[in-house]
Amino acid sequence: MSCSCQKPGGGAPDRYVSFSDIDCDGNARLLMEMLYRHLEDPAKTNAFWEYFKKKAAGETGPQPDDLFMVHCHLNQLREFFETHEDREAQALLEKIEEECC
């Protein structure tokens, strides 16, 4: 028995059927890279983002994966990318939220 993970009539994979062909981990990793490029600028970071980086690195407990970090901090990430007008990161965050969270 095989599972077709395509929507009826073709099209994009359906996350409710399978995560097959959806690169959740890769997209989360890319989003984190986009975030860290912003956080290199001292004017864009604060105590929360410094804690976030430590948490992501496993300095405050077990090291979570990037998808977990994105999932747990969707609202903070959304606000950050909106504040810094990063449309590309906003679009990727929305994609991750819709497909993977």
From TrEMBL:
Coiled coil: none
GO biological process assignments: nitrogen fixation
Keyword Flavoprotein: no
Keyword rRNA-binding appears in the UniProt entry: no
Keyword field: Nitrogen fixation
Pfam families: CowN
Function: Is required to sustain N(2)-dependent growth in the presence of low levels of carbon monoxide (CO). Probably acts by protecting the N(2) fixation ability of the nitrogenase complex, which is inactivated in the presence of CO.
Assigned protein family: Belongs to the CowN family.
Name by which UniProt lists this protein: N(2)-fixation sustaining protein CowN
